[in-house]
Every structure is written in structure tokens, then in C-alpha cells.
Amino acid sequence: MSEFPDVPVSALPDDAVVLDIREQDEWDLGHAPSAVHIPMSQLPERVDELAPFLDRDDPLVITCRSGGRVQRVMPWLAQQGYEVANLEGGMRAWHAAGRPMEAAAGEPTVS
């Protein structure tokens, strides 16, 4: 059981800002329109890009394909001072719920 909260897709507005930590090829296939993309492998050197999210009232919601990578990243981000939460079900759940998505080319999908 995670010490961090899970946020259901239904609790977020379509324009919610989420941190998407999937790799570039996954992002290109489909992502939430207002998501911030920093692949998990680049997070340590790019964590400063998250500074605008540090003083928010709501936690920074993090997503990957289905939630596995998020569980590894949340404790590290919490150590950096961020209040974080997991997007329950990840981008698979976002897509399955029919939420808006953008893609680099073609119809958005989640692999």
C-alpha cells in the first residue's frame, strides 16, 4: 500500500496539469493536453522544471502508463519537497475514460 494518495481520473478536470513520466515514444502516442512531460529517466536532472508546482494547494498528480513507474518516483519527489499523488490507473485509465488526448501524429492511444 502506497503512502501517497491515488486520484481517480474522474476527480480531475480535462485541463488538469499532471506530470507524465513516460518515455518520449509513449508520450508521442498520446497524452493529456495540459500534461507536463519529463521522462522518469530525466527527472533527476530536470526536477527544477517542477518548481511552479511546489507551492500549490493540491498535490502534483503524476502519471505513467498504468502506475508502476509512478510508485518508484513519488518517494523521491516527496524527498525533494513535493506533495505528490498518483493518477489512479495511469494514462490507460485516462484514455479508457474518454478524456481528451493529443498525439504527435494520428489518433491518440496508449500502448
UniProtKB/TrEMBL annotation:
<dbReference type="InterPro" id="IPR050229">
    <property type="entry name" value="GlpE_sulfurtransferase"/>
</dbReference>
<feature type="domain" description="Rhodanese">
    <location>
        <begin position="12"/>
        <end position="103"/>
    </location>
</feature>
<protein>
    <submittedName>
        <fullName>Rhodanese-like domain-containing protein</fullName>
    </submittedName>
</protein>
<dbReference type="InterPro" id="IPR001763">
    <property type="entry name" value="Rhodanese-like_dom"/>
</dbReference>
<dbReference type="Pfam" id="PF00581">
    <property type="entry name" value="Rhodanese"/>
</dbReference>
<dbReference type="InterPro" id="IPR036873">
    <property type="entry name" value="Rhodanese-like_dom_sf"/>
</dbReference>
